[in-house]
Specification:
Length: 173
């Protein structure tokens, strides 16, 4: 039986662009990311530069214990006055269903509730993104409702399902 591999999070870097381009150019991975699949590594570099320059946001590269990059996750937005943050994440198709995103999600919860002193962590998910919805529910997030026509992609308005987890929901984090 093989040893369970663990992940760690580190700040995203432009040097991650070739690996992340591989994921961000895959239509299966980008299907629910509200971006069109990328056509070049330069686009990945531009995305990383954009993400690192956002105020009130933190993006991390998800790395296996052997150094393999498997995806990204982080806080898309942090509202310090109201002690809440919104998370987002994606993982390369070759790494789906291995428990890596669950590990990354728990690391984000730990960082959010303890390091950033957040009270509420939110995630917005397209209704059809069943794997992401199941992941959030498994991690103790509560479905709050549908945000009707909340985001626009390719000229169409998309509904989003709002999930949240509060610091008080579980004291194990």
């Amino acid at each position: 039986m093989s040893k369970k591999r663990t992940i760690h999070l580190r700040p995203i870097s432009v040097s991650d662009a070739p690996a992340l381009y591989h994921f961000w150019s895959d239509p299966d991975v980008t299907a629910f990311m509200n971006i069109t699949p990328m056509q070049s590594v330069e686009q990945a570099e531009e995305m990383i530069l954009y993400l690192t320059q956002l105020d009130h946001a933190d993006r991390y590269t998800i790395v296996l214990d052997d150094g393999t990059i498997v995806g990204t996750c982080g806080f898309n937005y942090r509202d310090t006055a109201n002690q809440r943050g919104e998370i987002g994440y994606e993982i390369g198709k070759d790494y789906w269903r291995n428990g890596y995103m669950s590990q990354a999600l728990y690391a984000l919860l730990e960082k959010g509730f303890h390091t950033l002193a957040l009270n509420r962590i939110e995630a917005k998910v397209e209704p059809g993104n069943i794997p992401s919805r199941k992941l959030l529910e498994k991690a103790g997030f509560h479905e709050e409702g549908i945000l009707r026509q909340y985001e626009r992609m390719n000229g169409a308005f998309l509904d989003m399902v709002m999930y949240s987890r509060l610091r008080s929901d579980d004291t194990s984090i």
